[in-house]
């Protein structure tokens, strides 16, 4: 059980996302989860061992470390990634529920059911409309909220995104104001800035996706009001072609993101 | 043999669960198992090495650590995850038993081997009660063993061979406290889900039973 399991769960959501959603997913996997696992974890690996205070007083180092790092950067990022990925599960659950309903209809022998067999229902990709649109939009909204909350928590807890070399600590039992030195401060600053930058890119992608969905929704509505006779077959063919292209793009991206493990 | 086994087990149970049951499985996977493996385990990784006492007396640190942490919080967390996930196995076994029975008698004995009715309903309800029971037991154990869910920075220890009441410092107490509160919150959410699933199933099947007997009476 590791990040690979999350990748498997989210990979299923990929089929039902918009193109921007697929880009977001790729950015999440490659520039956040993978970087966290292969690089960032090593940088923060020895953090308390190499956190050194200029004192022989037992306990001073522990207390100062706890005072300056209430929760480690790496753990906060791990929690951020988990929370930011979970709204996509709402979409997965909604799709699973729809599939279940269609299968039930098919089994009952409903005339309205347009599928020939169960396999077709399983393989079908649902369009983002109706109640699925609402689920999808709320999942993007929650993603945005979680990203913003964690970025703010970072900024608030660590007074900005820089990691200082030296911290002055006077918490008890340190006998006086003691100098404490953080290990690898520059490398940690670089990774912190990198993760914040990628977080911001993800926020922008989410905002763009939200705007795209809203614009599409309002355009469709105004088209329906303006032109009650629309041609569903023509729309479906064009959208199916676009979806196929998107799937080709995302499949080629997915092939480069093959099972990584922590 | 690792957490992957538990993940496969729970994926197998997913098929025979209600909607609420599937939400429970998703929460256990993501907010408990995944958080444990990728974050919480590393917080407690060097807890004994980083536990420091203000003394040079050999053995004092060991004895004090053992006194304050009879079973490490992270091990209790792992045990809780395992015990809370296993009652679902009862349902899997019962379904397998049903399928076996159908094979042996070479005829369709049930409407669907995986449908929650009759004996399988009882098994499912028992598994829900056991899951909730284990969650509550572990939360109470946590509370009793560690005097609440707070992790203090400093503990005073006067066990032999420590020469007097010695100051001992726990490493990363704030981070540990945050993760413990996270554990309690997710446990609480799982308890609420289990209780609502239990009520939902009891309500659904009593209504079904009632309408059946009512329609029989009418006939």
From TrEMBL, chain A:
Membrane-spanning residues: 23-40, 77-97, 132-158, 191-215
Spans annotated as Disordered: 225-245
Membrane topology type: Multi-pass membrane protein
Localization of this protein: Cell junction, Gap junction; Cell membrane
Domain Connexin cysteine-rich: 146-213
Single GO cellular component term: connexin complex
Keyword Methyltransferase in record: no
InterPro entries: Connexin, Connexin_CCC, Connexin_CS, Connexin_N, Connexin_N_sf
All copies of domain Connexin N-terminal, residue ranges: 42-75
Family classification: Belongs to the connexin family.
Job description of the protein: One gap junction consists of a cluster of closely packed pairs of transmembrane channels, the connexons, through which materials of low MW diffuse from one cell to a neighboring cell.
Subunit structure as annotated in this protein's UniProt entry: A connexon is composed of a hexamer of connexins.
Descriptive protein name: Gap junction protein
Automatic annotation (TrEMBL), chain B:
Annotated ranges, domain Connexin cysteine-rich: 134-201
Annotated GO MF terms: gap junction channel activity
Membrane topology value: Multi-pass membrane protein
Residue stretches making up the Connexin N-terminal domain: 42-75
Keyword Cell membrane: yes
Pfam families linked to this entry: Connexin
Keywords: Cell junction, Cell membrane, Gap junction, Membrane, Transmembrane, Transmembrane helix
Superkingdom of this protein's organism: Eukaryota
Signal peptide: none
Sequence intervals crossing the membrane: 21-39, 77-97, 118-143, 178-203
Gene3D superfamilies: Gap junction channel protein cysteine-rich domain
Tagged with keyword Transmembrane: yes
PROSITE patterns: CONNEXINS_1, CONNEXINS_2
Subunit structure and binding partners: A connexon is composed of a hexamer of connexins.
Family per similarity comment: Belongs to the connexin family.
Protein name: Gap junction protein
Organism field: Crypturellus soui
């Amino acid at each position: 059980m590791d990040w690979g399991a999350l990748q498997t769960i989210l990979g299923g959501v990929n089929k039902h996302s918009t193109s921007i959603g697929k880009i977001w997913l790729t950015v999440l996997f490659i520039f956040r989860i993978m970087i966290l696992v292969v690089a960032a974890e090593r940088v923060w690996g020895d953090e308390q061992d190499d956190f050194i205070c200029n004192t022989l007083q037992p306990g001073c180092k522990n207390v100062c470390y706890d005072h300056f790092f209430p929760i480690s950067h790496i753990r906060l990022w791990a929690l951020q990634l988990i929370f930011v990925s979970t709204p996509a599960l709402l979409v997965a659950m909604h799709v699973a529920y729809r599939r279940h309903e269609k299968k039930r209809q098919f089994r009952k022998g409903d005339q309205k059911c347009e599928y020939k067999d169960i396999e077709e229902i399983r393989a079908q990709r649902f369009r983002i409309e109706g109640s699925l649109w609402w689920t999808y939009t709320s999942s993007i909204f929650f993603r945005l909220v979680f990203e913003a909350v964690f970025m703010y928590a970072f900024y608030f807890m660590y007074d900005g995104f820089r990691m200082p070399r030296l911290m002055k600590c006077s918490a008890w039992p340190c006998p006086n104001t003691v100098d404490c030195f953080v290990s690898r401060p520059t490398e940690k600053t670089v990774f912190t800035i990198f993760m914040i930058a990628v977080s911001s890119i993800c926020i922008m992608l989410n905002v763009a996706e939200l705007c795209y969905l809203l614009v599409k929704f309002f355009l469709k509505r105004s088209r329906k009001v303006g032109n009650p006779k629309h041609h569903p077959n023509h729309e479906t063919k064009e959208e199916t072609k676009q979806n196929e292209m998107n799937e080709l793009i995302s499949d080629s991206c997915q092939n480069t993101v093959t099972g990584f493990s922590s | 043999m690792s957490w992957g086994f538990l993940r496969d087990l729970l994926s197998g149970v997913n098929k025979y669960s209600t909607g609420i049951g599937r939400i429970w499985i998703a929460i256990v996977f993501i907010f408990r198992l995944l958080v444990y493996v990728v974050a919480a385990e590393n917080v407690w990784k060097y807890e004994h090495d980083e536990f420091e006492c203000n003394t040079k007396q050999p053995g004092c640190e060991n004895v004090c650590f053992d006194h304050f942490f009879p079973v490490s919080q992270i091990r209790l967390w792992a045990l809780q995850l395992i015990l809370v996930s296993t009652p679902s196995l009862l349902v899997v076994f019962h379904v397998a038993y049903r399928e076996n029975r159908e094979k042996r008698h070479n005829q369709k004995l049930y409407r669907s081997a995986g449908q929650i009715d009759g004996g399988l309903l009882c098994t499912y309800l028992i598994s829900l009660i056991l899951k909730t029971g284990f969650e509550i037991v572990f939360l109470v154990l946590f509370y009793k063993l560690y005097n609440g869910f707070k992790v203090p920075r400093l503990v005073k220890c006067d066990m032999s061979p420590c020469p007097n009441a010695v100051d001992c410092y726990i490493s990363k107490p704030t981070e540990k406290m945050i993760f413990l509160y996270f554990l309690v919150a997710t446990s609480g959410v799982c308890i609420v889900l289990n209780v609502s699933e239990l009520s939902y199933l009891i309500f659904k099947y009593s209504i079904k039973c009632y309408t059946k007997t009512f329609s029989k009476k009418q006939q």
